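Support case: user asked for a sample of complex input and structure output to validate their parser. Sending the pair below.
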Amino acid sequence: MITVAGPTAQSELDPLSETSKEQLLEIAMGPQHPSTHGVFRMNVVLDGEHVVRLKPVFGYLHRNHEKIAESETYLGSMPYTDRLDYMCPITNNWAYALAVEKLAGIQVPERAEYLRVIVGELTRLQNHACLIGFLMQDMGASGTPLMYAFREREKILDLFESLTGARMMCNYMRFGGCRADLPAGWLDRAKIVVAGFPGFLDEYEQLLVGNEILMDRTQEVGVLSRQLAVSAGISGPMARASGVDYDIRKVDHYSIYDRFAFRVPLGSHGDVYDRFMVRLLEMRESVGILEQAMRDIPAGPIVDPKTKIRGFRPKPGEAYGRIESPKGELGFYLISDGSPNPYRYRVRPPSLINLTVLEDLCVGRNVADVVAILGSIDIVLGEVDR
Amino acid sequence: MNLEAIESEIEANVPGCRLVLIANPSPSGQHSLLLDAGHAMAVAIYLRDAASLRFDFCSNVTGIDWPAKELSEKVKVKKLVDGVEQEVEEVRKTTTPGSLEVVYHLFSIEKKLGPLVLRMSTGDRDANVHLPSLTPVWRSAELQEREIFDLFGVVFDGHPDLRRLLMWDEFQDHPMRRDYVDPDDYEYEPTAHDEVLRRANQHLSEGGGR
């Protein structure tokens, strides 16, 4: 009946003989550890250098986002979604707006869809660039790749700042559209940033892809099989690195993604190196989408004029809306009882669900590999713990 | 493939299973199927393995708390008041028992289908909080069911590692329930120091401090 190896139960964890137990060392990695990407803790049991068992411990950043959102109006939660995955606030806004639009049956004007795609893909560019930088930093490439990524991210955050007023907590989407139209000259500046991005990617690839140390540290490390990836609900670049051909932009055709020509990069080994390469290739595709979107963007309204901002009460019912966020499938599940607050508000956090397989990937590897594997999963604790 | 077809296909292939189609009035049109707990596992395995469906990707698992509802309606009753028959308004109260519900959103990666929404309900939530775990079928439910156990208090039978996920292990209540009240001493956590203090006090009371 069970085809995929299940997680180890607490009771099954001690079949080790008394003598070998004496040699095991249990260490707590995190919550204050430079490579855990925030306040994330792993209880790791080591036999020498090898990981015997690994239990992630969550909740250090838990503030019950869902409960807070249920006592808030629909629009009132919009700025709070920025704080989930704080590296990509705009895609969080987008997923939430999409779910509410499904719940209330709101149409989005064409120009707003283009704006969403442009800021969404810019978010993906800066997230992937930084994630690769963090991964290299974790593996000991102190500074250089990360600083290169931050140099590019800075340009994108400057664009966000002039468009939304905030570099990170953008609060840009509204139900049925976007909050602000492009300021004068924004599109030209964005075109310059996007046109310069392939140059950065060339430089990045030259620096990293053929690097012998990088290949040694990442190839055949943390191999995730396709079968386990599907069963464990792994989504986003991590699933595609294991060969799962599933990109929600292609599957759901949400927004206007069916108008753009882009390919979905797939890995074949499912190791850390493939996860790194899939993200690198995805950035090239995002640059292509951005070029098409910025070429085709029409004039028009940016928000559906029929949408009520004040006194917004969707009819009773429920909706699940999801998008392909840079981390994976970001979904929002909302239940309305006809009141101004959602009765139930649920975030489907890709970071948390991608961590399901952390122990499977790490057992049998060295401690240093745990850092590389965790870095390649791409987590943000604001979203894991909510 | 519409939901009625899926429903009848499941009922034809899983013996004894009864599904209820729950309509969703929202424009999203995402209707759902209510499973009975006894056949949930068989239905889940069928949905995952049936060649025509292949719902291999369990995306989202979440809980919902429906507390007991008290409906009061005004009823006009004829009564004798001071020997004269009069119509008097009375308030009649009826209570519907509360329940805890668990919702699964399934997709098919192979067939590009979905979302298929499955629900399970505990019935009266004061009497029963047990539901079968679907983690053996879809591994992705592992952390999400732990989260529901933590925040809603649904006990998943058959879950391989059912512990609290986000709250600390000593925490007692379930914060996502609608009737949850913040404790007064929210910051209080038993520490090793409490045990030391207890032993010190015991030691002193036994005259050990002289």
